[in-house]
Design a protein that fits this description.
With about 400 residues, the chain is of the alpha/beta class. It has two domains: about 1-45 and about 190-400; about 50-175, abc type-2 transporter like domain (abc type-2 transporter like fold, 3-Layer(aba) Sandwich). It contains 15 helices and six strands. Strands 2-1-3-4-5-6 form a six-stranded mixed beta sheet. β5 (about 165-175) and β6 form a beta hairpin. α6 (about 125-155) runs antiparallel to α7 and α9 crosses α15 (about 375-400). The radius of gyration is 28 Å and the shape is elongated.
């Protein structure tokens, strides 16, 4: 009975905590909005795949190829177009597949493989869009694999032959840059996950900073610090730096763990002829990407630390501070999820958004690098620095 009363007392304490209630409302509201946004993004990507045309380039025009094209066009509801070159097909239809010379011979010979060439144009650098667009090549190869026995049977008046595996050697056209499918997917996954990882560190830093200030208020050390002849701005900066150091230590261990996990996952998958994805990514993006990640972490720690100081200054104890800081952490993580699913097109609005959220700076760097619009990342960095300065000023004012 005593334990039951104590548990009820603790439950009533956090239910009456306004920070806990505000946190619940904020989490439900923000994640409901994020779910709606990401749901529309996935729906849009799927609809784009379903409704997209397919460009075929016929390097040979035999009766078998003509029959296969007719069956494929019927299966895809008239969305197959024939072009003279792969570049023309990709530019107009968004996806192009080459039926190469020797296709008929390989299709009718039992021991010869069938290899097609394909290319896909990707307009938005997002994980959802990348997977949807690159999946088109797999969809087409599966359709050709399924329809080829029917085409052989109709062309040569023979019994239905067993299916032969169809392989597609694919490439990606991204802002006039031709890259391999493996390179593009590796870079997309890596770039999409970085904002999420950075957001987790920033959310933790907000919690640390708010707790540092709130605990000192409860222990009466807050008034002692304010009584000293020290500028308030220096106190705020010290709080931010203290929380940032703790977050950096946590983040370093966190990143090392993820890096080890990533290397362990790819060690068995990487072949002798193909470079491991992490080497491929660094070769593709350059060492500057690591510097951009570091810049995003530093600016983000200042940004989130200032928010934490403001929360800790406004609340009365560490419980309310924790209740308010926790949903802020989830909001940071939500920003990472949005970047992963939606992507950021290379335009000024995306540059402003990346500058305000800070965690998406590495993502914006890759987008600006790939699109050639390098001025966008410069705008984002300027906005990020201005946002951090404004938050430090606001934290100092509230701290006073």
């Amino acid at each position: 009975m005593t334990l039951t009363r104590l548990v009820k007392r603790e439950v009533k304490a956090f239910i009456k905590n306004p920070g806990f209630i505000i946190g619940l409302v904020l989490i439900i509201s923000v994640y409901g909005l994020l779910g709606n946004i990401t749901g529309r993004a996935v729906e849009s990507a799927v609809r784009e795949v379903i409704e997209s045309n397919v460009g075929l380039v016929l390097e040979e025009r035999t009766r078998l190829v003509e029959e296969l094209v007719k069956l494929l066009n019927t299966t895809m509801e008239g969305r197959v177009r024939v072009y003279e070159s792969l570049d023309e097909a990709v530019s107009d239809a968004g996806i192009g597949v080459v039926i190469p010379t020797g296709f008929t011979e390989n299709a009718t010979s039992p021991n010869k493989p069938i290899i097609l060439r394909g290319s896909v144009k990707v307009a938005v650098f997002s994980l959802t869009g990348a997977q949807a667009r690159t999946g088109l090549l797999t969809t087409i190869s599966s359709a050709v694999e399924r329809l080829l026995p029917l085409a052989v049977s109709a062309t040569y008046n023979v019994s239905l032959q067993p299916q032969k595996p169809i392989f597609v050697s694919g490439s990606i056209l991204f802002y006039n840059k031709q890259v391999s499918q493996e390179e593009f997917l590796s870079v997309t996954v890596f770039t999409s996950l970085i904002p999420l990882f950075v957001s987790i560190i920033l959310g933790i830093n907000t919690t640390y900073a708010s707790q540092l200030v709130a605990v000192e208020k409860v222990e009466k050390a807050f008034e002692m610090i304010l009584a000293q002849p020290i500028r308030r701005r220096d106190i705020v900066l010290a709080k931010i730096l203290g929380a940032s150091i703790a977050s950096i230590l946590f983040g370093a261990v966190y990143m090392i763990g993820l890096f080890i996990m990533f290397l362990g996952g790819i060690s068995s998958a990487a072949s002798a002829e193909q470079a491991p994805p992490i080497i491929m990514i660094m070769t593709f993006l350059g060492p500057e990407m690591l510097g951009m990640i570091g810049l995003a972490v530093v600016l983000g720690l200042i940004f989130s630390g200032a928010i934490g100081v403001m929360i800790g200054s406004l609340v009365s104890d560490e419980r309310i501070a924790g209740g308010l800081a926790a949903p802020v952490m989830f909001v940071f993580m939500g920003v990472g999820f949005v970047a992963m699913y939606l992507g950021l097109p290379p335009n000024p609005a995306s540059a402003v958004l990346a500058g305000l959220t800070i965690a998406t700076l590495p993502y914006m760097y890759v987008v600006s690098l790939m699109s050639g619009e390098t001025s966008l990342i410069v705008y984002s960095i300027i906005i990020s620095v201005g946002t951090c300065a404004l938050l430090i000023y606001a934290a100092s004012a509230i701290f006073n």
